[in-house]
Each structure stands twice: as structure tokens, then as C-alpha cells.
Write a structure and sequence with these properties.
254 residues; mainly beta; six-stranded antiparallel beta barrel; 3 helices; 15 strands
Length: 254
């Protein structure tokens, strides 16, 4: 079995940050001395995480990352970012389509185009539809939402560059509980995650590290002081097995 550090290194290369750029509003300022009005555009950013399941092509993320749980805004431009080895450069791939949109399960699959740098590639991590029991060792990797210091957006709303601190974050734990919500198999973990990590993989640690779920939400817990966020949980990828197989994504051997 690979040690934890090796597993983090391997999984991290397939995990991406997902960014959405949406036009928020336009302002028109009257020009002076007969000059034409000057129009400025303000943009809204959204961040989440995801993981590649078909090299340079498909990325799984949480549906709510795309538009807070609503259908994606057709005017939003989506990109995925890879930061190899958590190093200095970040490379982005444009999202060209969203072939799987399961609002009911909070799962989406993004199709990506080629990277801005032609020789940069996004490796895939294997997935499994097998069930796991309580006590299974797991690894989570995601990108906490960055603090944005600058952004360069083109006239058509395309991302051209920016300044933000983008590093992935890993955590280790176990499956703390598993059960069905209706017909949907759910896993709870004894780890937490930060804003922006939603959509990142939940990986079963073993001889082969494979993703079996994704970071999605938490269960509310009632306390004497009100409702607070409780155990983090994610839906089993087996819930969208037909969708993934239809895209040519086969399960890995476990």
C-alpha cells in the first residue's frame, strides 16, 4: 500500500479548482466634452473543486459549484485550474460543455478543452462504484477558495489571467457512517473541508487509490444553541454509474 504522502502526491495531480466567471452588471459613464460614453463591466466569481476521470477530457464536480444549486447560467464561462505539485504556476483549461447535470444528486461532469499551454496535461484518477464500509481509510483533496487580488477578463467575458493564491489541501480520515437517503447511498466522514473544496474527490486509500464519492455537503446537527454544521458527507459515485459509463468512463479495479 502506498504511504500517505505518495497517495497525496498522486491524487493531487488529478484534482482541479473550478472557476466560474459571470457578468454581474454593466455601468455606463457619460463621456466628457462630447466623448462617447464609457462602459465598464463587473464580474462575479465562483470557486469549487473537481477531479479528472478521463485524461484531458472529463472532470467531476458538485453541481452546486456551478450556480449555487441552480441550473448553470448560460452566460458563465467556466475554467478548471491545475497546480502541479502545489507549485508556483497554475494552468487553466476552458470548460466546453457540461454533459452530466444531476441537480437531484448534486453531481456534474465537465468536458474540458485543451490547456492554454499545449504541453500541460491533466491526468485522471480511477473511480469505483463498489460500496465501502465504516472504517475505510479515505483521503480528500480540494482547493479552498482563494483570495483574489486581480483579474483580467476579456471583452467577451473570457478569463485572460489573474492574481490569486491557489493551492490544494489534503486531509485523511475514515468513513464514519454510511446509509441510504431514499435510494441514494451516502457516506459520512470524520474529516471536514473548507469553502471551495466542494466537488473534490473522496478517495479510498489502498493498493490502488480510487475515488468513490465527492465532497458535497454536511448534515445539520441540533444543539442547545441552534442548528450547526455536522458531519460532512458525499454521495456514492455509483449513483451516476450509468452517466459515467455512457461517457466511456470505466471503473478501476480495486
Amino acid at each position: 500500500m502506498p504511504n500517505l504522502g505518495d497517495s497525496i502526491t498522486q491524487v493531487r495531480e488529478s484534482v482541479v479548482a473550478v472557476m466560474g466567471v459571470t457578468e454581474a452588471r454593466r455601468k455606463s459613464k457619460t463621456g466628457k466634452h462630447g466623448k462617447k460614453p464609457v462602459e465598464t463591466v463587473e464580474y462575479k466569481l465562483g470557486f469549487g473543486s473537481g477531479f479528472c476521470v478521463a485524461e484531458d477530457r472529463y472532470v467531476i464536480t458538485a453541481f452546486h459549484v456551478l450556480n449555487d444549486g441552480k441550473a448553470p447560467n448560460p452566460k458563465t464561462h467556466f475554467y478548471v485550474f491545475t497546480v502541479p505539485g502545489n507549485g508556483e504556476p497554475a494552468y487553466h483549461f476552458p470548460v466546453t460543455a457540461i454533459p452530466v447535470q444531476r441537480q437531484d444528486m448534486d453531481i456534474a461532469v465537465l468536458e474540458i478543452g485543451v490547456c492554454e499551454i499545449p504541453d500541460v496535461h491533466l491526468p485522471a484518477i480511477g473511480v469505483t462504484f463498489e460500496p465501502f464500509q465504516d472504517g475505510q481509510r479515505v483521503l480528500t483533496v480540494g482547493f479552498p477558495a482563494p483570495e483574489v487580488h486581480g483579474l483580467n477578463i476579456g471583452p467577451q467575458g473570457n478569463y485572460l489571467g489573474g492574481q490569486f493564491f491557489l493551492k490544494s489541501h489534503a486531509n485523511e480520515g475514515i468513513v464514519a457512517a454510511h446509509y441510504d437517503l431514499g435510494s441514494l447511498p451516502v457516506y459520512e466522514l470524520n474529516v471536514t473541508w473548507h469553502n471551495g473544496e466542494s466537488g473534490g474527490p473522496i478517495v479510498a486509500l489502498g493498493d490502488t487509490n480510487v475515488a468513490f464519492s465527492l465532497m458535497q455537503q454536511y448534515r445539520n446537527v441540533q444543539t442547545p444553541h441552534g442548528v450547526v454544521p455536522g458531519p460532512r458527507r458525499g454521495l456514492a459515485l455509483s449513483s451516476v454509474e450509468a452517466d459515467l459509463v455512457g461517457l466511456g468512463i470505466s471503473p478501476a479495479a480495486v
